[in-house]
Amino acid sequence: MPLKILVTGGAGFLGTSLCEALLDEGHEVLALDSLFRGSLANIEHLMPHPAFQFQNDDVRNVEALDACVESLGGLDLVYHLAAINGTKWFHEAAHSVIDVNINGTLRTLELAMANDARYVLASSPEAFGDAEVQPIQNGNPMQFSDPQQHQRHSYGASKYLDEVAAQHAAREGLDVRIVRPFNAYGPRLNGGDYGQVVAMFFNAVLSSSPLQIHNQGSQTRSFTYIDDITSGFLKAGLMDLSVSGGTLSGMAFNIGSTEEVSILELQKRIFETVQADASWNQPLPTVEFSEGYHGDAVRRWPDTTLAEAHLGWRARTDLANGLSLTWVALR
Protein backbone atom coordinates (compact mmCIF):
# COMPACT_ATOMS: atom_id res chain seq x y z
CA MET A 1 0.00 0.00 0.00
CA PRO A 2 1.48 3.40 -0.96
CA LEU A 3 2.62 5.52 1.97
CA LYS A 4 2.21 9.28 2.27
CA ILE A 5 5.75 10.52 2.88
CA LEU A 6 7.21 13.92 3.71
CA VAL A 7 10.89 14.44 2.85
CA THR A 8 12.33 17.62 4.35
CA GLY A 9 15.37 18.87 2.49
CA GLY A 10 13.90 17.02 -0.47
CA ALA A 11 15.60 19.19 -3.11
CA GLY A 12 19.06 18.62 -1.67
CA PHE A 13 21.70 16.10 -2.67
CA LEU A 14 20.52 13.28 -0.41
CA GLY A 15 16.87 14.31 -0.49
CA THR A 16 16.54 14.24 -4.26
CA SER A 17 17.87 10.70 -4.55
CA LEU A 18 15.64 9.58 -1.70
CA CYS A 19 12.55 11.13 -3.34
CA GLU A 20 13.40 9.33 -6.60
CA ALA A 21 13.74 6.00 -4.84
CA LEU A 22 10.52 6.41 -2.85
CA LEU A 23 8.60 7.23 -6.03
CA ASP A 24 10.08 4.15 -7.70
CA GLU A 25 8.77 2.15 -4.74
CA GLY A 26 5.27 3.45 -5.49
CA HIS A 27 4.80 5.92 -2.63
CA GLU A 28 3.33 9.44 -2.55
CA VAL A 29 6.08 11.97 -1.80
CA LEU A 30 6.09 15.63 -0.85
CA ALA A 31 9.49 17.34 -0.78
CA LEU A 32 9.78 20.39 1.47
CA ASP A 33 12.82 22.59 0.94
CA SER A 34 13.76 26.23 1.54
CA LEU A 35 16.22 26.01 -1.41
CA PHE A 36 18.99 27.48 0.75
CA ARG A 37 21.09 24.41 0.00
CA GLY A 38 18.73 22.51 -2.27
CA SER A 39 18.00 23.33 -5.88
CA LEU A 40 14.98 23.20 -8.17
CA ALA A 41 17.30 21.84 -10.84
CA ASN A 42 17.73 18.71 -8.72
CA ILE A 43 14.03 17.86 -8.73
CA GLU A 44 12.70 19.35 -11.97
CA HIS A 45 12.63 15.87 -13.53
CA LEU A 46 10.34 14.74 -10.69
CA MET A 47 7.79 17.53 -11.07
CA PRO A 48 5.64 15.76 -13.73
CA HIS A 49 5.34 12.63 -11.60
CA PRO A 50 1.71 12.29 -10.44
CA ALA A 51 2.75 11.10 -6.96
CA PHE A 52 5.27 13.90 -6.33
CA GLN A 53 4.73 17.35 -4.82
CA PHE A 54 7.12 20.14 -3.92
CA GLN A 55 6.67 22.89 -1.37
CA ASN A 56 9.18 25.74 -1.07
CA ASP A 57 9.19 26.66 2.61
CA ASP A 58 11.14 26.57 5.86
CA VAL A 59 11.16 23.38 7.93
CA ARG A 60 10.77 25.48 11.11
CA ASN A 61 7.42 26.84 9.86
CA VAL A 62 4.67 24.92 11.65
CA GLU A 63 1.97 26.17 9.27
CA ALA A 64 4.00 24.99 6.29
CA LEU A 65 4.43 21.54 7.83
CA ASP A 66 0.71 21.29 8.51
CA ALA A 67 0.06 22.35 4.91
CA CYS A 68 2.27 19.48 3.72
CA VAL A 69 0.13 16.98 5.60
CA GLU A 70 -3.04 18.52 4.19
CA SER A 71 -1.64 18.42 0.67
CA LEU A 72 -0.67 14.76 1.06
CA GLY A 73 -4.02 13.91 2.58
CA GLY A 74 -2.39 12.40 5.64
CA LEU A 75 1.07 11.40 6.84
CA ASP A 76 2.62 7.97 7.31
CA LEU A 77 6.35 8.67 7.31
CA VAL A 78 8.68 11.65 7.79
CA TYR A 79 12.23 11.60 6.46
CA HIS A 80 13.88 14.59 8.10
CA LEU A 81 16.94 15.57 6.06
CA ALA A 82 16.67 19.37 6.15
CA ALA A 83 19.75 20.99 7.72
CA ILE A 84 22.44 23.54 6.98
CA ASN A 85 25.44 21.50 5.93
CA GLY A 86 28.84 22.45 4.51
CA THR A 87 31.96 23.11 6.58
CA LYS A 88 32.25 26.79 5.75
CA TRP A 89 28.72 27.40 7.01
CA PHE A 90 29.58 25.76 10.34
CA HIS A 91 32.15 28.47 10.99
CA GLU A 92 30.50 31.41 9.25
CA ALA A 93 26.86 30.94 10.24
CA ALA A 94 26.89 28.95 13.48
CA HIS A 95 23.71 30.60 14.79
CA SER A 96 21.72 29.67 11.68
CA VAL A 97 23.16 26.15 11.63
CA ILE A 98 22.04 25.57 15.22
CA ASP A 99 18.65 27.24 14.69
CA VAL A 100 17.68 25.30 11.57
CA ASN A 101 19.11 21.96 12.63
CA ILE A 102 17.63 21.83 16.13
CA ASN A 103 14.34 23.66 15.63
CA GLY A 104 13.65 21.90 12.35
CA THR A 105 14.05 18.57 14.13
CA LEU A 106 11.81 19.59 17.04
CA ARG A 107 9.06 20.82 14.73
CA THR A 108 9.12 17.70 12.53
CA LEU A 109 9.15 15.39 15.55
CA GLU A 110 6.07 17.22 16.83
CA LEU A 111 4.45 16.82 13.41
CA ALA A 112 5.15 13.09 13.37
CA MET A 113 3.78 12.67 16.90
CA ALA A 114 0.62 14.61 16.06
CA ASN A 115 0.00 12.37 13.05
CA ASP A 116 1.30 9.09 14.52
CA ALA A 117 3.77 8.85 11.64
CA ARG A 118 7.05 6.95 11.55
CA TYR A 119 10.08 9.24 11.73
CA VAL A 120 13.58 8.88 10.25
CA LEU A 121 16.22 11.38 11.36
CA ALA A 122 19.23 12.10 9.15
CA SER A 123 21.93 12.56 11.78
CA SER A 124 25.68 12.55 11.16
CA PRO A 125 28.91 10.99 12.41
CA GLU A 126 29.70 14.55 13.49
CA ALA A 127 27.21 13.96 16.32
CA PHE A 128 30.18 12.26 18.03
CA GLY A 129 32.16 15.52 17.94
CA ASP A 130 35.89 14.97 18.45
CA ALA A 131 35.56 11.24 17.85
CA GLU A 132 38.78 9.87 19.31
CA VAL A 133 37.46 6.29 19.52
CA GLN A 134 37.27 4.54 16.15
CA PRO A 135 35.42 2.96 14.49
CA ILE A 136 32.45 5.20 15.27
CA GLN A 137 29.68 3.17 16.89
CA ASN A 138 26.85 3.53 19.36
CA GLY A 139 28.20 3.79 22.88
CA ASN A 140 31.33 5.72 21.89
CA PRO A 141 31.90 9.01 23.75
CA MET A 142 30.22 12.02 22.17
CA GLN A 143 32.51 14.90 23.09
CA PHE A 144 33.09 18.42 21.83
CA SER A 145 36.00 20.83 22.09
CA ASP A 146 35.92 24.38 23.52
CA PRO A 147 33.60 26.52 21.32
CA GLN A 148 35.95 29.45 21.81
CA GLN A 149 38.42 27.61 19.58
CA HIS A 150 36.12 27.17 16.59
CA GLN A 151 32.46 26.85 15.61
CA ARG A 152 32.61 23.65 13.59
CA HIS A 153 30.61 21.81 16.23
CA SER A 154 27.63 24.08 15.63
CA TYR A 155 26.69 21.28 13.24
CA GLY A 156 27.88 18.22 15.14
CA ALA A 157 26.51 19.36 18.50
CA SER A 158 23.15 20.21 16.90
CA LYS A 159 23.03 16.70 15.45
CA TYR A 160 23.84 15.30 18.89
CA LEU A 161 20.88 17.21 20.33
CA ASP A 162 18.74 16.06 17.40
CA GLU A 163 19.50 12.48 18.44
CA VAL A 164 18.64 13.31 22.06
CA ALA A 165 15.27 14.70 20.95
CA ALA A 166 14.65 11.72 18.68
CA GLN A 167 15.44 9.23 21.43
CA HIS A 168 13.15 11.11 23.82
CA ALA A 169 10.34 10.86 21.25
CA ALA A 170 11.03 7.13 20.89
CA ARG A 171 10.66 6.73 24.66
CA GLU A 172 7.34 8.55 24.38
CA GLY A 173 6.14 5.95 21.88
CA LEU A 174 7.01 7.43 18.47
CA ASP A 175 8.50 5.01 15.94
CA VAL A 176 11.87 6.71 15.37
CA ARG A 177 14.90 5.51 13.42
CA ILE A 178 18.23 7.38 13.15
CA VAL A 179 20.55 7.24 10.14
CA ARG A 180 24.09 8.61 10.11
CA PRO A 181 25.33 8.83 6.50
CA PHE A 182 29.12 8.89 6.09
CA ASN A 183 30.54 11.26 3.47
CA ALA A 184 28.00 10.70 0.73
CA TYR A 185 29.12 11.56 -2.79
CA GLY A 186 27.87 11.23 -6.36
CA PRO A 187 26.19 13.28 -9.11
CA ARG A 188 24.45 16.49 -7.92
CA LEU A 189 26.81 16.88 -4.96
CA ASN A 190 27.65 20.55 -4.32
CA GLY A 191 31.20 21.26 -5.46
CA GLY A 192 31.30 25.00 -4.73
CA ASP A 193 33.10 26.76 -1.91
CA TYR A 194 30.40 25.60 0.51
CA GLY A 195 30.29 22.06 -0.85
CA GLN A 196 31.89 18.69 -0.17
CA VAL A 197 35.34 17.43 -1.01
CA VAL A 198 34.70 14.86 -3.78
CA ALA A 199 32.69 17.32 -5.86
CA MET A 200 35.13 20.13 -5.09
CA PHE A 201 38.02 18.04 -6.40
CA PHE A 202 36.13 17.11 -9.57
CA ASN A 203 35.16 20.77 -10.04
CA ALA A 204 38.83 21.71 -9.85
CA VAL A 205 39.52 19.26 -12.67
CA LEU A 206 36.64 20.51 -14.82
CA SER A 207 37.51 24.18 -14.31
CA SER A 208 41.30 23.73 -14.43
CA SER A 209 41.51 25.46 -11.05
CA PRO A 210 44.03 24.65 -8.32
CA LEU A 211 42.94 21.71 -6.21
CA GLN A 212 43.07 22.59 -2.51
CA ILE A 213 44.08 20.00 0.09
CA HIS A 214 43.87 20.85 3.79
CA ASN A 215 46.33 19.77 6.48
CA GLN A 216 48.53 17.75 4.10
CA GLY A 217 45.59 15.47 3.33
CA SER A 218 46.34 12.99 6.11
CA GLN A 219 42.78 13.02 7.53
CA THR A 220 40.74 9.95 6.54
CA ARG A 221 37.11 9.51 5.54
CA SER A 222 34.76 6.73 4.46
CA PHE A 223 33.30 7.94 1.18
CA THR A 224 29.94 6.31 0.41
CA TYR A 225 28.24 6.39 -2.98
CA ILE A 226 24.81 8.00 -3.08
CA ASP A 227 22.98 4.84 -4.20
CA ASP A 228 24.23 3.01 -1.11
CA ILE A 229 23.25 5.90 1.16
CA THR A 230 19.78 5.99 -0.39
CA SER A 231 19.39 2.25 0.07
CA GLY A 232 20.18 2.67 3.78
CA PHE A 233 17.57 5.39 4.20
CA LEU A 234 14.96 3.31 2.36
CA LYS A 235 15.54 0.27 4.55
CA ALA A 236 15.57 2.32 7.76
CA GLY A 237 12.26 3.96 6.91
CA LEU A 238 10.28 1.27 5.13
CA MET A 239 11.09 -1.86 7.14
CA ASP A 240 8.56 -2.71 9.84
CA LEU A 241 10.90 -5.01 11.75
CA SER A 242 14.61 -5.64 11.67
CA VAL A 243 16.17 -8.56 9.80
CA SER A 244 16.78 -10.13 13.21
CA GLY A 245 13.10 -9.76 14.12
CA GLY A 246 13.07 -6.91 16.65
CA THR A 247 11.71 -3.40 16.54
CA LEU A 248 13.77 -0.71 14.82
CA SER A 249 12.43 2.17 16.90
CA GLY A 250 15.15 4.02 18.77
CA MET A 251 17.95 2.41 16.79
CA ALA A 252 20.77 4.46 15.24
CA PHE A 253 22.49 3.14 12.12
CA ASN A 254 25.83 4.11 10.59
CA ILE A 255 25.39 4.04 6.82
CA GLY A 256 28.86 4.24 5.37
CA SER A 257 31.58 2.49 3.45
CA THR A 258 34.20 0.75 5.56
CA GLU A 259 36.83 1.58 2.91
CA GLU A 260 38.90 4.19 4.75
CA VAL A 261 40.76 6.66 2.49
CA SER A 262 42.91 9.70 3.23
CA ILE A 263 42.13 12.97 1.48
CA LEU A 264 45.49 12.79 -0.27
CA GLU A 265 44.64 9.30 -1.50
CA LEU A 266 41.25 10.58 -2.66
CA GLN A 267 42.96 13.22 -4.77
CA LYS A 268 45.14 10.54 -6.37
CA ARG A 269 42.13 8.31 -7.03
CA ILE A 270 40.26 11.17 -8.68
CA PHE A 271 43.23 11.93 -10.92
CA GLU A 272 43.39 8.24 -11.87
CA THR A 273 39.67 8.28 -12.69
CA VAL A 274 40.09 11.30 -14.97
CA GLN A 275 43.21 9.91 -16.65
CA ALA A 276 41.34 6.68 -17.45
CA ASP A 277 38.87 8.71 -19.52
CA ALA A 278 40.30 8.67 -23.04
CA SER A 279 37.94 11.45 -24.13
CA TRP A 280 39.37 13.91 -21.58
CA ASN A 281 42.50 15.63 -22.84
CA GLN A 282 42.84 18.58 -20.48
CA PRO A 283 45.80 18.84 -18.10
CA LEU A 284 45.24 17.91 -14.47
CA PRO A 285 45.03 20.83 -12.04
CA THR A 286 47.86 21.80 -9.75
CA VAL A 287 47.61 20.69 -6.14
CA GLU A 288 47.94 23.26 -3.37
CA PHE A 289 48.17 22.58 0.36
CA SER A 290 46.66 24.86 2.98
CA GLU A 291 45.95 24.87 6.71
CA GLY A 292 42.24 24.21 6.37
CA TYR A 293 39.52 24.61 8.98
CA HIS A 294 39.87 24.40 12.73
CA GLY A 295 38.29 21.34 14.30
CA ASP A 296 38.50 19.14 11.21
CA ALA A 297 38.20 15.47 12.24
CA VAL A 298 41.40 13.45 11.89
CA ARG A 299 39.47 10.27 11.19
CA ARG A 300 35.88 9.25 10.46
CA TRP A 301 35.38 5.51 10.05
CA PRO A 302 32.06 3.68 10.70
CA ASP A 303 31.14 0.45 12.40
CA THR A 304 28.21 -0.78 10.31
CA THR A 305 27.43 -3.90 12.33
CA LEU A 306 23.95 -2.74 13.34
CA ALA A 307 22.98 -1.77 9.79
CA GLU A 308 24.12 -5.15 8.53
CA ALA A 309 22.37 -7.09 11.30
CA HIS A 310 19.07 -5.21 11.46
CA LEU A 311 18.64 -3.70 7.99
CA GLY A 312 20.53 -6.21 5.88
CA TRP A 313 22.51 -3.23 4.55
CA ARG A 314 26.11 -2.79 3.50
CA ALA A 315 27.88 -0.53 1.03
CA ARG A 316 28.11 -2.22 -2.37
CA THR A 317 29.89 0.43 -4.46
CA ASP A 318 33.64 0.65 -3.96
CA LEU A 319 35.38 3.99 -4.31
CA ALA A 320 36.86 3.28 -7.75
CA ASN A 321 33.44 2.51 -9.25
CA GLY A 322 31.72 5.33 -7.41
CA LEU A 323 34.23 7.92 -8.60
CA SER A 324 33.93 6.62 -12.16
CA LEU A 325 30.12 6.88 -12.06
CA THR A 326 30.35 10.40 -10.65
CA TRP A 327 32.86 11.53 -13.27
CA VAL A 328 30.76 10.16 -16.14
CA ALA A 329 27.71 12.03 -14.82
CA LEU A 330 29.64 15.29 -14.39
CA ARG A 331 31.15 15.09 -17.87
Quick summary of this structure?
This protein has about 325 residues and is an alpha/beta fold.
Characteristic key phrases:
39% helix; two-stranded parallel sheet; Rossmann fold; 16% strand; 13 strands; 331 residues; seven-stranded parallel β-sheet; alpha/beta
Q: What does this protein structure show overall?
A:
With 331 residues, the chain is α/β, with parallel strands linked by helices. The chain has a domain at 4-183 and 225-257 and 302-316: NAD(P)-binding Rossmann-like Domain (Rossmann fold), CATH 3.40.50. It is built from 11 helices and 13 strands. It has helices at 13-24, 40-43, 62-72, 87-92, 94-115, 153-171, 197-207, 226-238, 263-275, 305-311, 319-330; strands spanning 4-8, 28-33, 52-56, 77-80, 118-122, 176-181, 184-185, 211-214, 220-221, 224-225, 251-255, 261-262, 287-290. The chain has a 7-stranded parallel beta sheet with strand order 3-2-1-4-5-6-11, with helices on both faces. Helix 2 (40-43) links the parallel strand 2 (28-33) and strand 3. The chain starts with a strand and ends with a helix.
